[in-house]
Write a structure and sequence with these properties.
55 strands, five-stranded mixed β-sheet, about 45% strand, 9 helices, mainly beta
Length: about 1000
């Protein structure tokens, strides 16, 4: 009820502002001197190259939104992440790792893999960039931005199933011009931009632009008492233009972007704590340790409930459970066994987070570095008066590094004091493990708490070459033919460091005995012939990447793609045109899999480890390359009609049928466990490409003598193998689902007087996963089947499993007690040669099938190898696909002599959606809105503009997307939100 009242209040405020602009503003304008007669009022036109030739945006039979530099600035759209306010059926969010999800009509990049392609292609001056800084980078000296909705490929260099975002920078001009702008705002924001264009005669010109942003942090870290998530970035662009003859034209562009600050890669981490059951059938669970073992860490509750601001049941974490059982350091004063962590201890018990999404609590502030370079050379040669040859050559490199606290909240003190340990005779036998209750991790340093930090880094290189031949005949037929080649190399590394990992490596697997009888550790080097786990001794900033005391997912991909494509344009009559396009694409992707090696070891002579299940003790070896190849024929056919109607000034009606394609890829490699040591659930190693058949009808209209522009589009997609990922076994498991998508879009601009303009867009979207599709929901593996329960496996197996309730009940009621149940319950997930099995075919030191009187093989007897029951996805909505989006903007200008005063407001709202394909209450994202206001004072004669703005007027922090973490970290949820309220004053001098 409160939410509905709030929404009505916001709408009332927005409507009141619009009403003021429409009614009160003219009254104020009457105080100004009367304006001289001028040309008829018309909506400003924008010339675009959506079809690789200059056309009015109203003449292009494609659903395209074009935003000029002036439109971007008036709406305060400073970067690609804010385009959703100007384009219907668009959503945007950061991703959990190094990229983002820009979604058009429900189609975005929900696949997480180094080998996955973006569904929405992002281009810089027509060059597709596989990796880019669309989210971080701010627009600088931009000519326009074009957003094409729907499958693209017959004109653009890279296939895209969702659409294309194409940013066009201003190129050098053969006249002198420039500008300098400075801005000051809250959060001690300082922004500046400058441009200088210098011609050298009539044939050569250069242009340089520079921009920077520095700002204090948006988020408060209450543990360190610091502000994080700040900005310190800059962009430089140099370009040159050469036109020595009327037939030959060339330009070259170099752009460099760099950021070095403590931007947060993700937002807060939420969790509805799962305490675990107290009863399994007739068996009562009386020990905290056993209850923890039946907990998955977090429950699938709503992200909007108070309970979501808890912390995971840390007692369920594999490393915590292992350190609670061993190694045994010795005895306490009452002759009780002392382990590194008390048995049944939950390090996050009682931890409650602030409800403020912009407040975290961590001992580690984030680190963020990004560097991106693009070099582009464009050549045009007129072979004749009607035929032009185009060449575009581009090189791009992108380097990215981001590190932050994994959880964004702190644990309680967790480690025992290893100095207070006695031997069997009651004499002191201190250990070097955790003196004073503090463990010193080689990467994370000393702490009495559990620390966890991650690193996401990426190194990318791309070459691109395109040739295109285009006609410009006066007759009834024209064409565009092209060919391109793309060579893209990438290495993505994702690390997770946790001091419990290192503690286990040093004092469980690399145990040594001190002269006093206490527990010590020994280095895993060439002096140790037996199985051990290599611990990287270097600090976090200087890791060698060879350690097995941290998780590393190393992903190396080489993509080579070539295509031939073209379109033909037939003027069937003066009012009727037929466009046909065809493309042939061949994609090759070579992936080099590097299995992760967390806590895996081996003998010095290369024999596999019998305790850990590993094949090597240090380093990351490569498995054979996975070579993939796809060939696809795609295209489009469009019929457009420009009738002469009595009630419009200009009308375009079009219908199109197109087919789009996006390549498949490989899932990152998992642990390479020895199956004779630890059983492991199988997973798919690859995922399929996407295909879409799209039908679209639309109309573009100019009415009321050009004062009103009204465009409408309806579309229907038949989608095959949409790629969606979730974290399984610590890797992104990408799956494919068929779906249907349909919707409507409206865009309008109304300018009844030179003073007043109102613009709006609306998108309706309906997405539906095809009947019969299913997937295992890691948040609900049993799907309500009461005959099965969820279990935590042993430490080497990352993912939870399901097991028969009656077998778990039998174990818990057995005379062997809860001590042996620690191991036997885990064996229901996966058998182990060291820690027990119920499978007689797996050799083990603990043959539980003899102890308990039953046999069980989870890989063959449990649904999907023990991973769980599939959730029925039939009819579900696709992720990040709100049923509607809407934006309305209005501006009014007062002409005060040499000065123009303009007031503008923009209100945006999107409806409810889901961040996962399962569409549960846990997945629900509430609708949210955003209001921005600005006022500007301009003197064109003097080249002066003073502007003040407020973004996110209501200072909202909606959850715009979310990401579910892995089973072994408790199935916590990283959430993403908007920037807070920002206000600033900006002064620009143009010349």
């Amino acid at each position: 009820m409160a939410s509905a009242v709030s929404i009505r209040a916001r709408l009332a405020l927005s409507v009141s502002a619009t009403a003021f602009l429409m009614t009160g503003a003219p009254a104020l304008a009457q105080t100004t001197p009367p304006q001289p007669d001028s040309a008829p009022v018309v909506v400003d036109d924008i010339i675009v190259t959506a079809q690789k030739r200059e056309q009015s945006v109203q003449d292009v039979p494609i659903a395209v939104t074009a935003l000029s530099a002036e439109a971007l600035q008036s709406r305060q759209i400073d970067g690609g992440s804010e385009l959703l306010r100007a384009v219907p059926n668009v959503t945007f969010s950061k991703s959990n790792f190094s990229m983002y999800n820009f979604s058009i009509r429900g189609i975005g990049t929900k696949a997480v893999s180094a080998s996955s392609d973006p569904a929405v292609a992002v281009s810089f001056n027509n060059t597709p960039l596989i990796r880019n800084r669309l989210f971080e980078q701010e627009y600088l000296d931009v000519a326009r931005v074009e957003v094409l909705r729907g499958p693209q490929g017959t004109l653009y260099g890279r296939n895209a199933t969702g659409g294309v975002v194409n940013m066009f920078p201003e190129l050098p001009k053969f006249r002198s011009e420039g500008f300098a702008a400075g801005e000051l705002g809250n959060y001690d924001s300082r922004r500046g931009q400058a441009m200088l264009n210098v011609p050298f005669g009539d044939t050569f010109a250069v242009r340089g632009a520079f921009g920077f942003t520095q700002r204090d942090g948006f988020d408060y870290n209450s543990f360190n008492d610091t502000h994080v998530n700040d900005r310190d970035l800059f962009t430089t662009r140099l370009s040159a233009r050469w036109e020595p003859t009327a037939r030959f034209r060339a330009n070259a562009i170099w752009e460099h972007f760099e950021e070095d600050d403590n931007r947060s890669r993700t937002g807060k981490q939420l969790c509805t704590t799962d305490p675990g059951p107290t009863q399994v059938g007739s068996a009562s669970i009386t020990t905290a340790y056993t209850q923890d073992q039946l907990s998955q860490g977090c429950l699938p509750g709503s992200l909007y409930s108070d309970a979501a601001y808890g912390a995971p049941n840390g007692g369920s974490f594999g490393p915590v459970r292992l350190l609670g059982t061993g190694p045994n350091l010795g005895f306490g004063p009452n002759f009780e066994l002392i382990n590194l962590i008390p048995l049944g201890f939950d390090p996050y018990e009682g931890v409650v987070q602030s409800r403020d999404l912009r407040e975290i609590a961590t001992s580690y502030d984030p680190v963020f570095r990004a560097e991106n370079d693009v070099v582009q050379v464009n050549l045009e040669f007129d072979l004749s008066d009607t035929l032009t040859l185009y060449s575009q050559t581009a090189y791009a490199k992108d380097d990215y590094y981001a590190s932050q606290d994994y959880a964004r909240y702190v644990s309680n003190p967790a480690f025992v004091d290893s100095n207070s340990v006695l031997d069997i005779f009651g004499d002191p036998a201190p250990s070097t493990a955790t003196p004073g209750g503090v463990y010193t991790d080689p990467q994370l340093g000393p702490s009495d708490r559990i620390l966890a930090v991650d690193i996401s880094q990426s190194d990318n290189r791309q070459w691109y070459q395109e040739f295109r031949l285009q006609s410009k005949n006066d007759g009834r037929f024209n064409f565009s033919l092209g060919a391109n080649y793309l060579d893209f190399k990438s290495q993505d590394d994702y690390y997770v460091f946790n001091n419990t990992f290192s503690l286990i490596a040093e004092y469980f697997y690399n145990t040594d005995f001190l002269p006093n009888g206490g527990i010590g550790t020994r280095p895993c080097d060439d002096t140790q012939p037996f199985e051990c786990v290599y611990v990287d001794p270097n600090p976090l900033s200087e890791i060698n990447g060879e350690g097995h005391n941290y998780f590393r997912s190393k992903n190396v991909i080489h993509t080579r793609s070539w295509a031939v494509f073209g379109e033909g344009y037939w003027d069937l009559t003066p009012e009727l045109r037929l466009t046909t396009g065809l493309r042939y694409t061949e994609d090759r992707k070579d992936t080099t899999p590097y299995p992760s090696q967390l806590l895996l070891g081996a003998n010095l002579n290369g024999d596999p480890g019998l305790a850990t299940g590993g094949y090597v003790r240090s380093g990351y070896y490569a498995l054979p390359d996975v070579e993939q190849k796809w060939e696809a024929v795609t295209g489009r056919i469009v019929l457009d009609w420009t009738p002469d109607l009595s009630f419009t000034n200009d009308t375009l009606v079009y219908a199109s049928l197109s087919r789009g394609y996006k390549g498949g890829g490989t899932n990152p490699p998992r642990l390479d466990l020895n199956p004779t040591v630890v059983q492991y659930q199988p997973l798919a190693g690859t995922f399929e490409p996407e295909y879409v058949n799209a039908f679209e009808i639309g109309t573009k209209n100019s009415l009321l003598d050009g004062m009103l522009r009204l465009n409408a589009t309806a579309f229907y997609y038949d989608y095959k193998d949409y790629q969606v990922s979730q974290i399984v076994d610590r890797i992104s498991l990408n799956e494919n689902f068929d779906a249907k998508i349909w919707g409507l879009e409206l865009e309008t601009v109304y300018k009844p007087t030179p003073n007043f303009q109102i613009d709006a867009n609306f998108g309706y979207l309906k997405t539906r996963v095809a009947d019969g599709e299913g997937s295992i929901d890691v948040m609900n593996r049993t799907q309500g089947n009461e005959d099965w329960i969820t279990l935590r496996p042993w430490i080497q197996v990352p993912s939870n499993c399901i097991a028969p309730r009656d077998l778990a009940e039998q174990i818990l009621n057995s005379p062997f007690g809860t001590e042996l149940a620690i191991f036997s319950l885990s064996a229901l997930c996966a058998g182990s040669s060291r820690f027990g099995t119920f499978n007689p075919d797996l050799a083990s030191s603990l043959p539980f099938w003899q102890f308990y009187g039953f046999t069980y093989d989870p890989l063959t007897e449990a649904p999907n190898g023990g991973r769980g029951f599939e959730a029925d996805l039939s009819g579900n909505e696709l992720p990040n696909s709100p049923n509607w989006t809407a934006n309305i903007g209005a501006q009014y200008s007062w002409f005060l002599g040499d000065w123009d005063l303009t007031l503008r407001g923009d209100y945006y709202r999107q409806g409810e959606s889901f961040f996962r394909v399962y569409n549960t209450e846990y997945d629900r994202l509430e609708g949210w809105d955003n209001l921005n206001l600005s006022v500007s004072l301009t003197n064109e004669a003097r080249g002066l503009k003073l502007q003040a703005y407020v973004k996110n007027v209501f200072d909202d922090a909606p959850i715009v997307d979310a990401f579910t973490n892995s089973d072994d970290t408790g199935l916590t949820t990283n959430v993403f939100t908007l920037d807070p309220r920002l206000f600033a004053v900006r002064l620009t001098k143009s010349f």
